[in-house]
Structures are given as structure tokens and as C-alpha cells.
Amino acid sequence: MKATLPRGASILAFRALLRQYRFMAHSNRAARAIELARAAGFDLCGIAPAAEFPELAHLDEWLERGHAGEMKYLHDDRRRSLALAMPDVRSVIVCALNYNTAFPASTTDAARPEESATGPRGWISRYAWGDDYHDVLGEKLETVVSNLRSDFQEPFEARAYVDTGPVVERVAAKYAGLGWLAKNTCLINEEMGSWLFLGVILTTLDLTTPLDAAQTPAADLCGNCSLCIDACPTGALVEPYVLDARRCISYLTIELRSAIPAEFREPIGRHVFGCDICQDVCPWNRRAPATSLATFQPRERDGRSLFSPELEWLISMNEEEFRGIFRASPVKRTKWRGFVRNACVAIGNSGLRPGKPRYGEICARLSELAASGDAILAEHAQWALHRLGFSDASPKASESSSPRSPFAPETTPPNSQSE
Description:
This protein has helices at residues 11-39, 59-64, 82-85, 133-151, 169-175, 210-214, 227-231, 249-255, 262-268, 277-280, 311-316, 319-325, 335-348, 359-370, 375-387, and strands at 44-49, 91-98, 123-124, 158-161, 180-181, 187-188, 196-203, 237-239, 242-243, 271-273, 300-301, 304-305. The chain is built from 15 helices and twelve strands.
């Protein structure tokens, strides 16, 4: 459509007309990019200008308070500005994929299958039941990039990231219109809740306008609710919208490589990989839709499921079995040693007592670990045996003398402050 100057119109009117046409052109380009993302299988997509997002200005303060623990990658200067992450970047395409399933929440009795014959059960975070989201989203993002190159003929650069680059995805998602940043630091979408994997494409394509940049992001609908803060067993949400990763169960069970600090072992409860509590209690997740994707359903092996798995099974895995069960799974990040360490803590919190099913077998396995040459596994197995009242346990190291380097490294809940 050709812009013409009406007779008698002022130069200001002409400029306004040009802005209107430019806005329409950008809107069409943005709409096409979003259409390509939806065609690739994403549930949500939005586009943000590559601006200096206000939230990133608070990153240094958060780091100075020590809330990142030993996650050194969060100190990367490029996380403070998209322009540092990618020179000449103009737009950020943010894509989201729902990973919620129809299985019960961790906070409900329904999430604890009958333990009469199998012994106590643990909890693996919902996002880690199936295939590794880095791979699933990464493949879809590359499809989007490939299709963008087919649709947009001008040369441009594009880089896709899924927790793999110096980009705070949830902040970009806010300005792409996908939701608000909640008190538990997760992104919440009014229709889909917070069970969302986020991926971004930084590109030199100009898909937004100054008008887009000035638009108000989605309203914060947390209101006076504090359920997530009140429910956190370790007090990781030190104030609304602020997470101290050093206290987060996801951090302690995934990022931490050394001994779990004694003060957090009991509050960790039955968690062996990650934590869903702050999302499970969130009212916005009560009606969150469940995905139909098989890739995020709980894996099964020999009749056993990763949904509320048997703890005896978990502590009995050797390294080879661990690698086989969790190949192409987010759980592999914690490695066999960290996973078994966590399972020992979960068993120590199970309340299992002499005479209960599998007590003897579980204590026998814990005794093997307590006698192993691995100091970390030995300490946590000894701690569990003591908690179970096993009289033959003779700890060789006290909790006060254990290594206390409490923190070391991605994924606390994906879509959260410490990712």
C-alpha cells in the first residue's frame, strides 16, 4: 500500500501516516514470527524489543547479597544487557512450552502412592519426569530460526538459547507479553499458570516498534497472596520476588556438589531432585492445562515410575544404571553421586522404623554406602541411618565436621530467579 500526502495535509500528518504504515509492517512481521513459533509446537510466543529491561538493573544487588551461591555463571556481565549478549540485537522472540501433566501435585496425599510393600517414596520435580527440555525446546527453536530464514529474505543473525546463554529468559518473557514475574520469581501466564519451559531467540531482525517497547507488560496478579512464601520449607523466598538460591531445595539437590548443610536436610523432606512446592500451592496453577506431549510424562523402567519413585530403588542404583535410566533427562545434571546423596536424605526424613516394610533392606544398602570410600555419600548415609534409628550405625563423621562449602552449579526450577 503506497503512502500519499493528502492535499493540504501538514508535514506532521504525513509523518504520522508513515509511522502508521511502519507499525503495520512491523506488526505483520511480528505476527508471522509468532505464527512460525506456534507451528513449531510452542504453546505461547511473544516478541520483546532488545531493550534495557529494568529488572536487570537489580542483578548486581542480588549477586552482592550472595543469593546466587556458587553459581558463577550468573556473574557473566552479558546477563546485564541483551546488547552485550548479542551485538546489534533488535528483537527477542520468547517461546513457551507447557510441561504440566495430569499427575497430582507434590503437596497432596494423592502424590504418595501406597507404601505398604514398597517402602518410602521420594519426589522428582515435575519438569524432570520426561526428556530433557533443553533438547526438546532447542530443536523447536532451531526449526523456528530455519523457517524465519525462509520467510525473511534480508540477511540477519539469530541465536537460540534454552538456559544455555547469558539471557534471563523470564524477564524477556515479561516484556514479550507472556505473563508477570511472581512472588516465587517464576513467570505466570494468566491462562496457563507457571508450568512453562522458556526459550528465546535473539535476532537482528527488527520485529518491534517503539510503540511496542512502551506498552505496559501484563499486570502483576499475585495480589496479597503469600502462599508460595509461606509454603517454602527452607525459607528460600526471603521476601516477595526475591529468591535466595542457597536455601532453595532445587539448588541444594541439583546445583550443590558438596555436603548438604545440616540445617537444610530435614526441611528438604522427600525431595531427591528439585522442588515443586511453590508452584503446587500457587492458585494460578489450579486450572493450568495439562500437556498432551508424551515427552514430558513420567518415565518408567521395569514397572517403576519417576512419579513419586521408590527410594530404595534410587539408592540402589549404580552409576551405569543411573546413566541408563536418566539418559537425555534433566536429572543427569546432578550426577549419580549427588542423586544418591539426595535419596539418602529423603530416606532419613521418611520416618521409616524397624518392623516397617523394606526397613532391613534399606538399612543394609545405607550401611554399604556408609562404609564406602566416598566421604559425601558416607556422611549422608550415616545421617540417614541415625534418623532411622538403626543401632548398628556408627557415624565416622559428625555433621559439624563435614565439608560446608554449601553451594556449587542451571536448573533450579526452570522459569525461576536462579536459573
